[in-house]
Amino acid sequence: MKNFMSKLILPVAALAMLGFGVFHLLKAQQTLPKPPPPVEPARNPFSHGIAAAGIVESRSENIAIGSALAGLVLEVYVPVEKVGIQVSAGEPLFRVDDRQLRARLAMQQAELAAAQAQLARLEAQPRTEEIPPAEARVKAAYANALRLQDQSERARKLLANNSIAVEESNDKQRLYEQAVEEWHRAKADLKLLQAGAWEPDKAIARAAVAQAQAQIGETQTEIDRTLVRAPVAGRVLQVNVRPGEYVSAAAGQALVVLGDSGSLHVRADIDEHDIPRFARETAARAFLRGPERKEVDLRFVRVEPYVVPKRSLTGDNTERVDTRVLQVIFEVASQDQPLFVGQQVDVFIDEQPASASKIEQTARAY
């Protein structure tokens, strides 16, 4: 009897294990219900609508302000703790080191003063104090010529009587002629002095003054370029520079980001395959990302007709990046919405039913 029971237990246990394995296998193969999404996706509010990815930007678009000159930043007038304030056009944002330029300006101003003094000296000629001595030299030369003339005439009379030698008479005549020439030279010097400075000399002096002024203007312009100002009135969106940092004049370096956020815009990227379905002046809405999915009404502003590669990515694994998009600008209808520049939104644009001819007309419009 015991042998019979022992022989029966093993088959029963094997069948039980087999049944458990089959049950576990069938249970594991059951299709589980799909879990709900962690965040409810935006729903297209239109029966025929175009979906697009959008990004919030300022009305003037985001202006990346850089530095015209490379150098050390001395002052930042809008520090990080004041980001978000409103600035007016021309208001200073930060200043690059300009000490070397100011030293050069002082030297050039001294050179200008010297050039102006030289020009003033030439234009003031002749000096009134120089005329009387020149006139006196003319009179003295004339008197000397008269004296030597009298001696020469007496020498000729004595020579006629053979009272003096011919050589002595000739010497008297030569001295008289020399005195006459000195008299003429004195008169010419007086005339030259009375005429004042030579006009070409004045022109050279004026050119030197103009050159010095141009150099000062150039340096002042460079000094003004070290002070970076707001090109338009707007809100400071970001500050990426600190006092003591070295900045370069490389393109694309956004040291300060400025934008006119008085009226926010949404830049929507419409896939190139959906361009024929798009029509102007149609209703459009944007949905903020997040658990509440707040809805924002949009107004059409303009279309940028140049189709560009897609740059604004949503991060979806199924999103295509090898596509081109048509960028459409919308204005946020109500500025009371809690929107921030750079925020991504989901945009839906109503597609008006259109015939094939109307689609062709819309396509030709772009």
Sequence-ordered SSE layout with sheet pairings:
Blueprint: H1 2-28, E1 49-57, E2 63-65, E3 71-76, E4 86-87, E5 92-96, H2 99-123, H3 131-160, H4 166-195, H5 199-226, E6 227-229, E7 234-239, E8 246-247, E9 256-259, E10 265-271, E11 284-288, E12 295-309, E13 324-332, E14 344-350, H6 356-365
Antiparallel strand pairs: 1-10, 1-14, 2-9, 3-5, 3-8, 4-7, 5-6, 7-9, 10-13, 11-12, 11-14, 12-13
Written account of the structure:
- With 366 residues, this protein is α+β, with helices and mostly antiparallel strands.
- It folds into three domains: 49-61 and 259-365, Beta Barrel (Elongation Factor Tu (Ef-tu), domain 3), CATH 2.40.30.170; 66-98 and 221-253, OB fold (Dihydrolipoamide Acetyltransferase, E2P); 105-211.
- Helix content is 41%, strand content 23%.
- The strands form three sheets. A six-stranded antiparallel β-barrel has the order 1-10-13-12-11-14. A four-stranded antiparallel β-sheet has the order 2-9-7-4, with no helix packed on it.
- Helix 2 packs antiparallel against helix 5 and helix 3 (131-160) packs antiparallel against helix 4 (166-195).
- It is rod-shaped and about 190 Å long.
- The two termini are 97 Å apart.
- The model is unreliable at 354-364 (pLDDT under 50).
> Sheet bearing the most strands, described?
6 strands, antiparallel, barrel
Oligomer: single chain
* CATH homologous superfamily assignment of the largest domain: Efflux pump adaptor protein, beta barrel domain
Approximate strand percentage: 15-25%
Portion of residues in helices?
40-55%
Summed up, the domain count is 3
Figure out the total of helices: 6
